[in-house]
Each structure stands twice: as C-alpha cells, then as structure tokens.
Amino acid sequence: MIESHHTLDPEATLDTPRPPVRAEVDPARRRVFTAFSLGTLLVGLLVSGLTSSWLDFRYDASLLYIGPLLAIGFLVAEQLTIDVDVKRVGWTISFTEIPLILGLLTAPFEVVLAANLLAGLGAQVGRRAATHVVYNAGVMCLEIAVPFAVATAVQRALPELAPEWFGPVLGTLTSPLISCAFALAALHVLGGAMRVSAAGRLSVRTLAVGLLNTSVGLIGYEVAKSTRWGWLLVALVAVAVVGLYRAYSGLLREQRDLEALSDVSLSVARSGQAAVRNPSEPEENTTSVSEWEPVAERIREQLNATRVVLRLRLDPRGEVSTLVAGEPLPEAARIAGPHALRDDPLLQLPGSHVRSFRTLEAPDEVRRALRMRGAYESLVVPLRGASQLLGAVEAHDRVSRWRGFGRADVRLLHTLASHLATAMDNRRLLARLRHDAYHDLLTGLLNRAGFREMAAEELRAGRTAVVLRVDLDLLTTVSEALGYTWGDRIVVAAGQRMLGELGPEVPLARLEANSFAVLLSDHTEEQAHAVGERLCEVIGESYPLDRLVVEAGGVAGYSSSAPSDAENENDIDTLLQHADVAVRAARNAKDVVRGYAPAMGQVFLRRFQLVTQFRQALDTGQVEVHYQPKVALPGRQVVGAEALVRWWHPEYGRLDPDEFVPVVEATGLVDALTSFVMERALIKVREWMDRDLRMSVAVNLSVRNLNDESFPDRVSEALLRHDVPPELLTFELTESSVMEEPERSMPVLRRLHALGVVLAVDDFGTGYSSLAYLRTLPVDEVKIDKSFVLGMGTDLSDMAVVRTIVELGHSLDLVVVAEGVEDDAARDQLVGMRCDIAQGYLISRPLPEDRFEAWLQARTVKARGPKSETVLTLVH
C-alpha cells in the first residue's frame, strides 16, 4: 500500500490509510471526526460480522501456527517500509498485501482479522501511538472483511472460469483502495482539500503498488507450495528483496536528509538576506521570528512530525521567541522570559545531543510537560552557539501510525540543530559587523557611513532632507587636564542629550571627534534653524563630572536638499560638505547657527585654492618679503626692520596676510613660509653688513614652529651659512602661541635663546600678560600691541596700560617696542615714557626690498657708530 504524508494545508495532513487527526483544528471539525471515527468502527464491525456469518469457519490444527505467523507477517510488513519522496509528496511503501493474500489463501477470515488487529493495534499501543484507535480499528476491520467477501464472491461466481488465486488477488487489491478512500474522507472531514485529479493519481499508485505486493506474495506462495524446499527459496528471495529494499530506503533517506539540510541552509541564507535592515535600527532588530517559519516547516516535513517548535533567543536581553510549524501549540506551552529554557523540564539540556522523551517512560515532571504540549513523544535538541544557549528545537509525535521517531530522525535532528546553531551564530556575527559598520563605537549613534546610507535612502525616495551639523566646542585643556576618557564621556553625554531632544525616530550620527549630524526629513530651513538652536542650547549646558563641572558650547550649520535659490541637491556628500561650510561660517561670524549659502562655498573654495597654490607661489616669486623699519627712541636711529610677508596672486591680486597666513598655518605649510622669510631676511642682513650697516630683522613665528624640536637646529645652520651674528635676528612670538602647548614650546624657546637670537613677545597686553608668566619666558623684548598705542591720544586707560608695560619691561631688563605709532603726539608720549623702540606708519609703511632701500637712502643720514659701524638716523 501507499501512505502519503503530503501536507495539504496547515491544519490537515493526509496519511493513508489512517490519517493523523490530533491537530488542534476547529473543535466542531474534531467533533465531526470523532463521529466519523465511530461510524467507521461501526461499519467495520458490521461488515466483519456479515462476512463472518456468510463464510463458514473451519477449524484446523494448522491454525495454531498460521494465526501467529500471520500476525508476525502483518507486524513485519508494517515495520519494513520504504519512504520515497516525489517532489513534495512523500510515499511510504509497506508490504501488508503480502500477509493479506497469504491469509486469504490459507486461513479463515476470523484468524486473519484477529492477526491484523492484534498486530496493528498492538504495535500502536507499544509505540504509544494509540491516538485514533477507534478510527484505525474500523479501517483494519474493513481492510480484512471486504477482501474476504470479494474473494469468496468471485470464487463462488466463477468456480470453473477463473483460477483458484484470482479471487484472493482481487480481494487483496481492494484493501489498499479501501484505506485510501477512508483516508481521503477523513481528510475532507478535517477540512483538508485534495483535487479529484490528485485523488485519482493517488488511487492509481496505491493500486499499482498493491498489485506488485500481491503478485510477490502469490508467487511466493505458489513456489513454496509446488516446489520441494520452495519455502526456503522463497525465504532467501524475501530476505534478499527486503535487504535490497532496506538499503535502497536508507539511500533515499540519506538523500532526503541532505536535501533537507540544503533547504534549511538556503532558507536561513534567504532570511539573512531579507534581514538587511535600516542602519538606524538597533542591532537586536536584525532578526524576526517569522523569518524562521520556512526552516521550522521544512524540519517538520522531513521528520514527518505533527509539530515542530523552535524556541529562539533572538533578543539580546535573553527573551525566548516561540515558533510553531504544524499543529498549534497550546497556549500554556508558549514559554517566555530569559529563564524559560532553564525552567522547563523538557528544555534542561546539558550538552548538545538530542534527547528523546516518551509519555510512558518519562518521569512525572517530563510527562506533565509533554501533556502540557499535547504530545506523546518528543525529540528535543539544544541550539548551542560559540558562547551561549541560542534556543532549542522540539519535534512532537511522528505522523506514522506505527513507528515513532527512529535513529535516523535523531541523527538528522542533531545535524539540523548544528546547522541552525552555526547559522544563528553567523547571523549574529553578521548583524554585529553590520551594526559596527554603520554605528559609532563610542556613542552607539550612526557613524558617517550609516548616516550617508540613511540620508541617501531619504533622497532616493524623493523626500526633502536637511542635513544639520552640530559641533560640540570643548576646550582641549579639558582633555589635557582630565584625560581623554573624560572628554569622551562629555561627547557621549552630548550625544545622549541630542538624542533625547530629537527622539529615536530622527537619525543622529557622530561624524568624527566632537562633530554630529542630524537628518531632518521634510523640514524647512526655518525649522532646521530652530532645531539647531535647541540642540546647541542643550549641549551647551554644563556637564557635571563627579565633583567637577565642565562648560562647553555648540555651533551648528545646515544645508537643505531643496534650497530656495538653487536647484535641488540630491548628493548627501555635498549636503554634508555644505553643512560643514555653514558651521565654519557660523564659528567665524560668532553665530550659533548658520544656514548654507552659495557664497560661503566660494569663500572656502578660495581658501582651498590658496592652500593648494601656496607652495607654487613660493617657488615662482609671487610671495615677497616687505620690511617695516624700527627706530630707537629718542635718537631715532634705524635699528632694524620687521620682515612681513606679502602675496601677489595672479587671479586675486594682492592678498592680505590675515587671509592666507591662518590658512597656511592650519595646513602645516607654515614651516615653509617661516623658512622662506628667514632666508630672505638673513640675506638682507648680510647685505647690510657688507655695507657696514648693523641692522636686525624680526621674523614672526607660529605655534607649529615652536612645537618643532628641529627648528633651532635649522636656525643655527642658516646663521652659519649666511655668517650673520645671532643677535641681528629677532623672532617675534605671541603669548597665545607659547601657552597653547607650553611643555613643547618652552624647550624650543630656551634653545633659541641659547643660540643668541633675540626673542620678542608680540602683541603684549592682549594675552595672558602676567608678570609671573613674563618672568618664565626666555625673552629679550616686548612689543606693545598697537591697539593700546593708537588709543593713547583719546583713552587714558590705554595710556596707563602702555606706561605700565614700559615700566614692567624695564624692570625685567627687557627692550620695549611700541608698534602702531602713527603720529608725532604718540611718539612724543612714548619718548616721555622712555620707550626704547618705535614702529608704525609715522616712520614708514611696510615696503618691498627695493623701495625699502630707497627709503633708507632718502630719509636717513649715515654716522659712525661706537664700533666704527655705520648707523642710520632718521631725518626730521
């Protein structure tokens, strides 16, 4: 006969001749099936009684061994089955027709019926599969009664025309057809559906296999009956055929198991591809329970189980999700919570092996757990990952009416569990890698890549997006004083404040260091401006760190994909760049929030061009050195000049130093600029010395020069190369440049001072300007900032500041230089204060080399100095 376990719908499974009907389907259908089972039993008993009364029972001594042999034959026939898969339909081939035709040929009806019922129902009880005894008993009665009635009717109707075996053959063929018909009827009662064509094909295949088994049994009977030692020959052939069938069945089972493993792997891979989420989603949301439904259903089909339950830890918090394939799981068995796998007696699984539980053999707590699940047998295997228990797989009650789960099922489930555990581990690893690829490790926010992905998706969807960049202004001294870990804590706190203000639905990213980006969908620029102000206010609040309170600020800039005065911008990189330009514009303008304007881009493009073209400008002579003279007071002798850099750009014309020098300093090209100016200045000093003029030149230094430990060596080499005394070279430095990194700048200053060069503090009075600070610096001059000198004539406080600086400098044996002298009154006041040197437009503007030489000749007179050197005195 043929037994099909093809799944027709989620709640009905066909298994001819006796289908499983334990599914928790509609209670009304269950009641109908119960009535149908009782009807089947009554019909079977009625037909059996009529057949028994119609046939004459003849007792024979041979029945004492024929009956048990037939029972053994029916039992063996049910045990020796071959499972064949054709596409999505599984066929179970058994040999029950063989003992049936032998019974028709050798034994009375009552003996064959008793043997069949004893073997069938006894095997069900022994296999604890007695779930539908009423239905099965009725079908078993009909499977024997109808063949005997048909065989007897044929023999009596055609006693001379048909051979002796013709009636039993026809009767035997009715048995699988009856079982198939009742199975289809049971399926219909349970709400299943099977097309007429499919039912017809099933009947034809059932009849074909039944005819083959009947022929084998008849031939064996005839050979054993008519040939001496024929029974031995039949036995040998039967053993060989059974062995061949079993081997073939094993190969088919292995093939199906491999296909199942392949299907499960493909299902996991497809669900993994489908699990690619939005980068803004948390890592734990990268997997959903529904993605595992094909996996659970495929395992159920392969094990031929009534139900497969997957209990998976998909939530990092340890919550257990339950997925059921097949019969619905009773609500009481849907365990949850982080300790669900530990508390359930069926799921307390040490190791990684499959455990089998049966109601008749299990301890009380396991039996209660099985009953809670509505199951009589269960295979349970844990899903163990590399470091934790990921879940468990349960298979409940094999569909077969005879057999429970066997060794092959245990091996398959163990292998499937290993594959699933590996797949889950891989999925978690991929999820973490994907999460780390799109998120900042410090703050947990999106990183630049994740933000770009999110914003690009919004732009592709045609939505208007505003990119808002927010920079946290945190003093570097905080990290230096407290350590970078404390600085990181402030960055994390700022990110959390902004996240709390925006809400989790608004994408927020940390781009780098103290810079954040916000994606505002369908916002106007006015709304973005308001959001930027709120965020800057939030992150500008003080940060309490243990016993300390750290102050910080914020500045923001934004750029919209739909600006009002330009075409729509759909490039996220451009929007980020524009937002960055707006931030720099806000910082330069001392604003809190600025929106991007196209003119800003031109300004920063110009700065970029200046940076890229500066090195070439040095080599091509576009950069020149101008000199502004310095005169001693009160004698007005020209004692030196300050070397000032000027750049004549071929496209932009004359560039103000305030425009390109900060850009050059920020990009690291200031070393080349300082070396250029120092070389030109030393060349000029050497020329003056060759003319017996003793004049010094002052060169400005930047922060980078003071942080360069090799700078004093380069200065020493240049002085030797040009043969210039070190006292004729002056380096001017600002207080802020020294104090930015004093631990690095102070050693450099001491080495320069040891060389003999003159060190001057420029713009004195605008920085730290404390006596204690000035005493620690190895300097020789102080230059009063021109803002105080210019204000002396109108502001008495400025005059007091200048007087104080002059007195302070002299008390420390320092030369005092006043810059910004533009009128005679200021010069006279400085003379009265005993200031040493004056510099400013009253004397001369900065001049190119040739004009400076002409100025020296036109406005000075030569005189012999105390060392027979020529000195220049300014003409009145």
Automatic annotation (TrEMBL):
Residues 607-860 form the EAL domain. The chain crosses the membrane at residues 32-51, 63-80, 100-121, 133-153, 165-190, 229-248. Residues 463-598 form the GGDEF domain. Coiled coil: none annotated. Residues 1-22 are annotated as: Disordered. One of its GO terms (molecular function) is cyclic-guanylate-specific phosphodiesterase activity. Keywords: Membrane, Transmembrane, Transmembrane helix. It comes from the Bacteria. The keyword Mitochondrion does not apply. This is Diguanylate cyclase (GGDEF)-like protein. It comes from Saccharopolyspora gloriosae. The lineage of its organism: Bacteria, Bacillati, Actinomycetota, Actinomycetes, Pseudonocardiales.
